């Protein structure tokens, strides 16, 4: 599959450590790691462990409806995080990929008025992203097969 970027579990292990090292090298110490569900949950957990951050929050955002198909704009789904929980904290927002960047931008904006500082981290960033992540492991313009989402659901809904 030359038209796709393939991330295996082994590559994910290495990439998440390298991404965490980028954060650590910048001297940014997040009080909270916030994973964007669903794709950002696995990377967020890995970064939280690597950065020794016990506060791990999630936000559910829907944007992709299939390969290459999206809603017009991303939508925050319930349960919605109480933004006042972020008051005065440094937040690292994590997602698997900044493709259009619209999801990452939405969550960054959601946090920005409450947190003392908001930074973003992604495994992959694409050239068309409307936001540049503060920390990126790799840049690509290919579709990405992640180990947690490549296989179809066991029990499709």
TrEMBL record:
Residues 16-151 form the Phosphoribosyltransferase domain. GO terms for molecular function: glycosyltransferase activity. Transmembrane segments: none annotated. Keywords: Glycosyltransferase, Transferase. Pfam families: Pribosyltran. This is Phosphoribosyltransferase domain-containing protein. It comes from Williamsia limnetica.
């Amino acid at each position: 599959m030359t038209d796709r970027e393939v991330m295996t579990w082994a590559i994910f292990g290495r990439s998440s450590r390298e991404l965490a090292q980028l954060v650590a090298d910048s001297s940014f110490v997040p009080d909270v790691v916030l994973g964007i569900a669903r794709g950002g949950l696995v990377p967020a957990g890995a970064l939280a462990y690597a950065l020794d951050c016990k506060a791990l929050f999630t936000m559910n955002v829907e944007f992709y409806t299939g390969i290459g198909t999206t809603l017009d704009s991303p939508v925050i789904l319930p349960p919605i995080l109480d933004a006042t929980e972020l008051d005065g904290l440094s937040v690292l927002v994590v997602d698997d990929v900044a493709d259009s960047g619209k999801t990452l931008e939405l969550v960054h904006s959601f946090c920005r008025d409450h947190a003392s500082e908001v930074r973003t981290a992604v495994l992959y960033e694409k050239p068309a992203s409307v936001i540049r992540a503060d920390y990126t492991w790799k840049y690509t313009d290919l579709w990405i097969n992640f180990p947690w989402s490549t296989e179809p659901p066991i029990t499709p809904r």
